[in-house]
Amino acid sequence: xxxxxxxFLSITFLWTQCxxxxxxxxxxxxxxxxxxxxxxxFGKPNEIATKHxxxxxxxxxxxxxxxGKVSLTLENHGFTTLHLDTRNLNIQKxxxxxxEEKTVFTxxxxxxxxxxDLAIEVKPETNLVxxxxxxTAGSDALQWLSAAQTSGKSLPYLFTQGQAILTxxxxxxxxxxxxxxxxxxxxxxxxxxxxxxxADNPQAKNNTGIYAFEMKQPIPPYLIAMTIxxxxxxxxxxxxxxxxxxxxxxxxxxxxxxxxxxxxxxENLYGKYLWGRYxxxxxxxxxPFGGMENPKLTFATPTIITGDRSLTSLVAHELAHSWSGNLxxxxxxxxxxxxxxxxxxxxRRIMESLYGADYAEMLALLGYQDLxxxxxxxxxxxxxxxxxxxxxxxxxxxxxxxIAYEKGYLMLxxxxxxxxxxxxxxxxxxxxxxxxxxxxxxxxxxxxxYSKIPKATLGDFTLEAWxxxxxxxAGHYENKxxxxxxxxxxxEAFIKNDxxxxxxxxxxxxxxxxxxxxxxxKDLDQEKMKNLDLVFNFSDSGNAEILDVWFxxxxxxxxxxxxxxxxxxxxxxxxxxxxxxxxxxGLKETNQLELAKKIYNKARPNYHxxxxxxxxxxxxxx
Length: 622
Known about the structure:
622 residues, alpha+beta, Immunoglobulin-like, Zincin-like, Neutral Protease, domain 2, 4 domains, seven-stranded mixed beta sheet, disordered N terminus
């Protein structure tokens, strides 16, 4: 049965909505002609497409369950079976139409990563289906936090994380990035808590515990997101603001003071922001990513709250997703680079606009270091270093690494260097405009690119060499930073026993410190490591980025046993996968697996499922 189900995984058409600002044209809906296989969805929108999703939910913190129904508005092309994605949900009943007539449904066999196909019997004229359900302990999108795991220590907390294919673990839906829908929601919570979603949001708590939401722009299901907690809001500009627990609000507002400037800079580059407001919510430390670009409301890790505004490029990145990713979306997870490569490029253009070219170059060089490390880890000839991925039969999350982000960025930067910035900017602006509110695949992009930028103007460069081949092609753009050149000299001086106590490092940014630590040898003696720590106080840094690279260096240099308690405190308190993976991996590679497991056993309850799935596999946790 499993093989049969895998063979019949749905072939989907991309359901897109095109927006045109040309005079006399109205917003129109069209079924895209190109057939695109999404190996990660059971949905068949070419037969019956979901167009709007309405949630009516009650959140029970005592049982840690969400209960209620989802009502799906359909466009039925004459078929009698609606296919939805579900995983670890308790489906109670399904009804049809306004009168809610009961119907028959079947949950097919479970397939790893994908979950179950919820097959619902409908009539050819059915345009409304209601699914009554509740979440379970296996609903991996949800992270329930006790009061003790929050900043305020008085009230519980819940947040969702849908990317890549986890929305199906809390909402039955056609969970493909190629399937765009609008949504609305009514959510009931305890009166002392507040709800916000990736939609139009309240800015203050009400006294009923019932909140209503609407997302009028069509988005893929992975961008449906919700946070519930003791939340407060502070405006930062006409269209921007920040949500956080009250204890974190002022710190967060200080850190993100330039958000409105970022939004204006982004619009100056690539056109009008089409989502209304742009707000950020700072989540508890267990959030597994740096940020998540949920439209209208970016979810952000508290690890970027440093007090010196040095890590706000993450906000620029998530803002850039409002164009690349949210406005123009990868059709399948094989096309993930279309989301992230463009976003990294856009992010660095925003940062350059606000803080100068060398600042952006430092970010680019750090990213290039990450890219080289990832390629070395995967293997120079690995198919996983292609931009276009082959994820059939695998978890879509496997493709979410530096290849999509940094190789994608490097390709776009190389194109810019060949055709010139002004021409490339014009191309990108038209690309976002002409594909607004659409999902596209890699082949569609290649055809579009060559229709605008003829091959004859590109010399030896080809998209295909970057997209369908491993590694980094020759002749790529090389990043340069004057500040990093000075740091390289400092590294050489340190190795030659220069007295670091005499160095003036007061003006060094986080990025300069990261470059310095990353370029130190992994065979330093204990005295040198101790001296670095005493002079620069790395082990007690309040900056998570610095702590992460320092602890990694300490692990490989055998210094970690001198600061083991501080490493443990960091790993227990921070759930961001970017930080966890190199540290647990380092402990494993240096024959300290028992120490890694001891810390992990203590830390694991604080991590989101996105992080635990990766760490469980890395450490052989059962």
